C-alpha cells in the first residue's frame, strides 16, 4: 500500500475533549538509503560479471538481494559523483539540478526527497560522503566528509563545526549510521515519526586504501580478469583511445600502494608497512629485473589494484551486515525499506580501465537493491529501465507525498507494491545519458546518448571520427547489446542498421528536448 499523509488524525473523543488531537501510529515505513562510491556491480556477488564469473563475495549485500529485489537495469544520468548524487536527491537531470560536473556547488534550497520527507513528518539524517560542496540542507542530523575525504582519520563537518574522527572511514560511517538508527528508532517509539536515514560510504573510491584487517584477504588469490582487460579499442571510433584511465599506463604510485596514504597515524603506519613493504619490494624487484613487463605487468597491476579495491568493498559489506543485524535487534526490519546502491558503476579492468564517466554499461549501470519486507517478494529481480532520477519520486510516492513537477524521474512505487511483476503504466522504453566533464581527470570526452532494451547510440561532439586530431566535428558510436554485450563493435556505420540508427537519432533528439539537455 502507499501511505497517505497527513499522519495525525484528529479523533473526536466526546464533546468535552473535542479539540484534543490524538496522534495515531504513523504507518509509513522508515527508509534506510545506503550508497557507496564507485562500487562496480561486477564486484557484488549477487550480480557478478555478465559471463557469470564472481570476483568476490559480498554476503551482506547478497542477503539484501536475497530478501529483496535486485535491479539489473538501473542507470545513472551522468556517471560521475556529484552530478549523480544531486540526481539521486532531486530527481532531476544535471541540466536542472545545476551540477553537470564535480566542479559546481549544490544549491541546497531546491526540493530533495529527504527535505520533502522531513516536511512531511519524517526524521531525517545523512552521514558519510556528501561531495556537493555546500553543506546538507533539510536534515535533522548530519555529519559529512569534506570533499572526497580520506580512508583514515577523516575530518568531518557537522552542524556544530569540524571534527576529526580517528579510525577507518568505512567503519566510522557504519558506526555513525548505527548510532543514528538507534536514536531515530527511540524517537519513533516516542512520537511515532518514521525516519529517512542516508548512510553514504566513501569506499571503494580511488585510492582504494584497505583497512589493516583486510590486508591479507586476497593473499594467494588470483582475481579473475575481465575478457577485455587487454582491449585494443579496434572496431570502434577513436573516443575510447582518448582517455587517461588505463591500468597499464595511468595508475600512479599511490594507487599501487608504493606510497602510503599521508593521513595514517603511527599505529596505522606500522600496520601498513608491515604488509605493503614486502609486497612492494617484491613488485619493484620484478619490475626492475624486467621479469614483469608488457602485458604481464598490466596483469600484475590489475591484481594489485583489484585486490585493494575488493578489500575496500569487504569493509563496506561487513558494515552493511552490521546495519542489517541492528535493524533486526531494534525490531524495525519489517517496517524499514533498505536500499543499497552506488553513485555510479565502475571499471574493474574492463576495456583495460579503472574509473567511470562513460556511457558503456560498466559505468552507466549502477547496482541497486531494495528490500521491503512484506511488500517486495524475496529474491525478486527487475529489468525495469530505471534511473537515479527515479529514486526521489519513488520514495515520495511511498510516503504519500506528491513529486514536484520539476522532477524528471518517475516513481516505480507501484511496481514494488505489486511485487515487481508489472511495469508501472506508461514506463519509459529508453534512457538518456549525458556526461559533461571533458576537462576533468581521466580526459573522457563529453558525450550523450540513448539506450533502449537492445541498442545504444552515443554522440561524442568533440571527437574527430578519423582519430587524427584532438578535436573534431563529432562522432557516433552504436552498439547492439544483444549480440555484443561487451560493446566491442561499433555498428554506427553498418548499412544494415541504418534504419535503426535513424530511429535512435530521432528518439535521442526527443529526449534532449524532454530533459532540456
Ligand atoms: C578524484 C580521483 C579521480 C576521480 C575523481 C572523481 N583522483 O579526482 O580518479 O575520477 O576524483 O571521482 S584521486 O587521485 O583523488 O583519487 S568522483 O567519484 O568523485 O566523481
Ligand atoms: Ca563516485
Description:
- The longest helix is centred in the middle third of the chain and has 37 residues.
- The relative contact order is 0.17.
- The chain is built from eleven helices and 16 strands.
- With 517 residues, the protein is of the alpha/beta class.
- The radius of gyration is 24 Å and the shape is globular.
- About 4% of the residues have low confidence.
- It has three domains: 322 residues, 3-Layer(aba) Sandwich (Alkaline Phosphatase, subunit A); 72 residues, no CATH class; 83 residues, Arylsulfatase, C-terminal domain.
- Bound molecules: 2-deoxy-6-O-sulfo-2-(sulfoamino)-alpha-D-glucopyranose and calcium ion.
Gyration radius, rounded: 24 Å
Question: Could you tell me which ligands this complex binds, including any ions or cofactors?
Answer: 2-deoxy-6-O-sulfo-2-(sulfoamino)-alpha-D-glucopyranose, calcium ion
N-to-C SSE string, H for helix and E for strand: EHEEHHHEEEEHEHHEHEEEHHEEEEH
- How much strand? 5-15%
- Number of DSSP-assigned strands: 16
What CATH calls the topology of the largest domain is Alkaline Phosphatase, subunit A
Summing up helix and strand content along with how strands pair, one would put the structural category as: alpha/beta
Cα end-to-end separation: 35 Å
Mean pLDDT: 94
* The CATH class of the largest domain: Alpha Beta
- Report the total helices: 11
Name the poorly predicted regions: 4-22
Globally, the shape reads: globular
Q: Mind telling me the CATH superfamily name of the largest domain?
A: Alkaline Phosphatase, subunit A
Q: Tell me the major beta sheet.
A: 10 strands, mixed
CATH architecture label of the largest domain? 3-Layer(aba) Sandwich
Our count of domains comes out at 3
Strand order of the largest sheet: 7-6-5-4-8-1-9-10-2-11
Helix content: 25-40%
Amino acid at each position: 500500500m502507499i501511505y497517505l499523509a497527513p499522519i495525525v488524525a484528529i479523533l473526536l473523543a466526546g464533546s468535552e475533549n473535542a479539540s484534543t488531537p490524538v496522534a495515531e501510529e504513523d504507518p509509513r515505513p522508515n527508509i534506510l538509503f545506503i550508497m557507496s562510491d564507485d562500487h562496480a556491480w561486477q564486484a557484488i556477488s549477487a550480480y557478478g560479471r555478465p559471463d557469470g564469473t564472481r570476483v568476490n563475495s559480498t554476503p551482506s549485500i547478497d542477503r539484501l538481494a536475497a530478501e529483496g529485489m535486485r535491479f539489473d537495469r538501473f542507470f545513472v544520468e551522468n556517471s560521475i559523483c556529484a552530478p549523480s548524487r544531486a540526481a539521486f536527491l532531486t530527481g532531476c537531470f544535471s541540466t536542472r539540478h545545476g551540477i553537470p560536473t564535480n566542479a559546481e556547488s549544490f544549491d541546497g534550497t531546491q526540493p530533495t526527497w529527504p527535505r520533502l520527507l522531513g516536511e512531511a513528518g519524517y526524521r531525517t539524517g545523512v552521514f558519510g560522503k556528501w561531495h556537493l560542496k555546500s553543506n546538507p540542507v533539510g536534515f535533522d542530523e548530519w555529519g559529512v566528509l569534506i570533499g572526497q575525504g580520506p580512508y583514515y582519520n577523516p575530518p568531518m563537518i557537522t552542524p556544530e563545526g569540524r571534527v576529526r574522527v580517528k579510525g577507518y572511514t568505512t567503519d566510522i560511517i557504519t558506526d555513525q549510521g548505527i548510532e543514528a538508527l538507534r536514536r531515530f528508532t527511540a524517537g519513533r517509539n516516542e512520537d511515532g515519526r518514521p525516519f529517512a536515514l542516508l548512510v553514504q560510504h566513501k569506499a571503494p573510491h580511488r585510492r582504494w586504501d584497505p583497512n589493516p584487517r583486510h590486508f591479507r584477504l586476497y593473499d594467494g588469490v588470483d582475481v579473475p580478469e575481465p575478457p577485455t582487460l587487454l582491449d585494443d579499442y579496434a572496431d570502434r571510433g577513436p573516443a575510447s583511445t582518448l582517455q587517461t584511465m588505463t591500468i597499464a599506463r595511468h595508475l600512479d604510485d599511490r594507487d599501487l600502494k608504493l606510497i602510503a596514504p599521508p593521513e595514517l597515524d603511527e599505529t596505522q603506519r606500522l600496520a601498513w608497512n608491515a604488509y605493503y613493504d614486502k609486497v612492494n619490494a617484491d613488485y619493484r624487484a620484478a619490475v626492475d629485473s624486467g621479469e614483469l613487463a608488457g602485458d604481464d605487468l598490466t596483469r600484475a597491476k590489475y591484481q594489485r589494484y583489484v585486490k585493494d579495491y575488493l578489500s575496500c568493498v569487504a569493509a563496506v559489506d561487513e558494515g552493511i551486515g552490521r546495519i542489517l543485524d541492528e535493524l533486526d535487534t531494534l525490531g524495525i526490519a519489517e517496517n524499514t525499506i533498505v536500499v543499497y546502491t552506488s553513485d555510479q558503476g565502475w571499471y574493474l579492468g574492463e576495456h583495460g580501465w579503472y574509473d567511470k564517466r562513460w556511457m558503456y554499461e560498466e559505468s552507466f549501470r549502477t547496482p541497486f537493491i531494495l528490500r521491503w519486507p512484506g511488500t517486495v517478494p524475496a529474491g525478486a529481480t527487475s529489468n525495469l529501465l530505471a534511473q537515479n532520477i527515479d529514486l526521489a519520486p519513488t520514495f515520495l510516492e511511498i510516503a504519500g507525498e506528491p513529486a514536484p513537477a520539476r522532477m524528471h524521474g518517475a516513481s516505480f512505487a507501484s511496481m514494488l507494491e505489486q511485487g515487481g511483476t508489472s511495469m508501472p503504466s506508461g514506463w519509459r522504453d529508453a534512457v538518456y545519458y549525458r556526461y559533461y566533464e571533458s576537462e576533468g581527470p581521466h580526459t573522457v570526452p563529453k558525450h550523450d546518448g540513448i539506450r533502449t532494451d537492445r541498442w545504444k547510440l552515443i554522440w561524442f561532439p568533440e571527437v574527430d571520427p578519423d582519430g587524427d586530431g584532438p578535436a573534431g566535428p563529432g562522432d557516433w558510436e552504436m552498439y547492439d547489446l544483444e549480440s555484443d554485450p561487451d560493446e566491442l563493435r561499433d555498428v554506427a556505420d553498418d548499412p544494415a542498421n541504418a534504419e535503426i540508427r535513424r530511429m535512435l537519432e530521432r528518439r535521442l533528439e526527443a529526449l534532449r528536448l524532454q530533459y532540456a539537455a
